Structure formats: C-alpha cells, structure tokens
Amino acid sequence: MGVTEADLLEEMDLPSVECLNQATGKDWGNALKQGYREDGGLFCQSDDDEQLILTVPFKQIVNLSSVAIQGPADGTAPKTVKIFVNKPNLSFDNCGKKATATLTLTQAQVTTGEVIELDFTQFQNVRVVSFFVDDNQGGGEVTNVSKIIVNGAAVHTTNMSELKKC
Known about the structure:
Helices cover 6% and strands 34% of the residues. The protein is mainly beta. The protein starts with 5 loop residues before the first strand and ends in a 12-residue tail after the last strand.
C-alpha cells in the first residue's frame, strides 16, 4: 500500500500526555521526548510502587504498527505492559480490564529496546494509546523506563474546519 511507517513522535500531543504514579523529577518526558529518551541515564520512574500508566494522545488519528520499550539492565525495567487503545481516562481502578495487547518483555528485549510488532487489526484509528506497566523485571518497588517509541502512520483525513467556502 505504500504507507510509510515511522516514529510517531511528531504526531503525539505532548502537552496533553499524562503519567500516573511518576516520581517527581523523573517524569514521562524522559522516556518520550526527543533528546531525553536518547539519554540512557534519564528515566520515567514509578513513585509509590512498580506500576505506571502513561497515556499518549495524538494530534490526529494514527494506525500503530509497533512499539519499543527500553529500560536499564538492573531489574527495574518494565516486564508486563498492557497497551490500551482509545481509553483516554485509564486509571489504576480500570486498567485490570482486557487490554488491546499485553506484552511480556524479556530482560534482553527491554535492555536493547527491541521493536515489538503489534496486531495491525487491533491498532487502527487510534486517538489515544495508554501503557500500563504492571510490574518490572526484578519484582522490586521501582520501575524505570528510559525510552518508548511508538511506530505507525498517520491516517490522513480532512479537517473540516480548514475548508473554505466557494
């Protein structure tokens, strides 16, 4: 079909990103923002326990093809990650529901930031993607995420407000 799939960073509505249970000074920007996520010493870190919820809205509708989630090799990297599509109000109270996908990452996958393919049929017409980190590699109380990359393509639609009258 000729659709170019790429890192969707430019399509993310970064001012509207939310992260629940992040530690002060170790927020989601360290894992998502260009420049920060390339620095292996910066993390989005959980605060009260090992769980995190990161909700990322997009500026326009996208189709997702794969994700890469990276963390340190010290046992604090994510292990079980549930991905939810178009659930903008995801919270710890409702993240136990059926996810669009559940990833069980190995230490090798998360240390290298291996690209994980997603089921294309489940990740079409996405306005918001949420990541629920349920636990980490070592089973400890702190989870560290150094990089999250979301790959896919924008769905080109017509913005009706931009149309001009004839």
